[in-house]
Design goal:
The chain is built from 14 helices and nine strands. It has about 300 residues and is an alpha/beta fold. It folds into two domains: about 160 residues, 3-Layer(aba) Sandwich (Rossmann fold), CATH 3.40.50; about 120 residues, N-(1-d-carboxylethyl)-l-norvaline Dehydrogenase, domain 2, CATH 1.10.1040.10. The strands form two sheets. The protein has a six-stranded parallel sheet, sandwiched between helices. It has a three-stranded mixed sheet with strand order 7-8-9. α8 links the parallel β8 and β9.
Length: about 300
């Protein structure tokens, strides 16, 4: 199976690497030529245009920042829709809205191209380990055809429903992740200002009901004050915008999610858009006039 991969950023690069390692003939495209060249050295094939990817691939994966970028790749002059052969399967693994996913699917169907929306969860660490959670919307037959592709990149792979359903599942995931990030941040500042060593706090609570994948992934980063991005604040904020617009269309109030979205907005306004989303702890630190110490323990 020949797989094209467009978008080799923090997540896309390790995902494409797993495809190469698992023996897929993998064609690569990104504005960052260094990422392309590194993967080509592993056995992938560098390409110069969306058209070239479309012509060479049976399956095309997009992993891009936002719906506007996906749309350009799919429907631009040199895009996938105009150049892919019939029965090509496009897998968009970006995080976009359900409405955009359904629209892309409908437009590609007119060209006899299948479309699956397959956003992921797990962040950079799970992308590197090949253990992403992948939630997929679209036709079951197309899903079954490309299941080995998903299995090369992920561990928990679920077909959740029709076109757009994958994105709804991802948005629900982002509600839970974002609120957890805020809760972990608030609790860390509270405990730290009370004089508790955050290492001991983490040890005490991680095995109880407060334990979570978010706590395990982000408390160590908070303790070390390591805010190099695995998932950027600006991307999380974009996802929460998609959550909000989808919820408005459905008539679903999201009072807690909308409050957390404003915390992310505050951090962007303060110049922290590209930091790891765990850096929303800065919001709580500024409110409490207390910064958690590197290493987790006050001197």
């Amino acid at each position: 199976m020949k797989v094209g991969f467009i978008g080799l950023g923090i997540m896309g690069k390790p995902m494409a690497s797993h495809l190469i390692k698992n023996g897929f003939e993998t064609y690569l495209l990104d504005l960052n030529k260094t990422a392309v060249n590194e993967l080509a050295a592993q056995g992938g094939y560098a390409c110069n245009s969306n058209k070239e990817i479309a012509e060479k691939s049976d399956v095309i994966i997009t992993m891009l920042p936002a719906a506007k970028h996906v749309s350009q790749v799919l429907f631009g002059e040199d895009g996938i829709a105009a150049n892919a052969k019939s029965n090509t399967i496009v897998i968009d693994m970006s995080s976009i809205s359900s409405a955009d996913a359904q629209s892309f699917s409908d437009q590609l169907k007119e060209k006899d191209i299948f479309f699956l929306d397959a956003p992921v969860s797990g962040g950079e660490p799970m992308a590197i380990s090949g253990k992403l959670s992948i939630m997929v919307g679209g036709e079951v037959e197309a899903f079954n055809t490309v299941l080995p592709v998903f299995q090369a990149m992920g561990e928990n792979i679920v077909h959740v429903g029709n076109s757009g359903a994958g994105q709804v599942a991802k948005l629900a995931n982002q509600i839970i992740v974002s609120i957890n990030l805020a809760a972990v941040s608030e609790a860390a500042v509270f405990a730290s200002k009370a004089g508790i060593d955050l290492n001991k706090l983490y040890e005490a609570i991680r095995g109880g009901l407060a334990g979570s994948a978010v706590l395990d992934a982000k408390m160590p980063k908070i303790i070390e004050r390591d805010f190099e991005p695995g998932g950027r604040i600006e991307i999380n904020f974009k996802d929460l915008g998609n959550v909000q617009s989808t919820a408005n269309a459905l008539g679903v109030p999201l009072p807690v999610t909308n409050l957390v979205k404003e915390i992310f907005s505050s951090e962007i306004a303060n110049g922290h858009a590209t930091k790891d989303h765990s850096f929303i702890i800065d919001f709580f630190e500024r409110m409490a006039n207390h910064q958690t110490p590197k290493g987790g323990k006050l001197q």
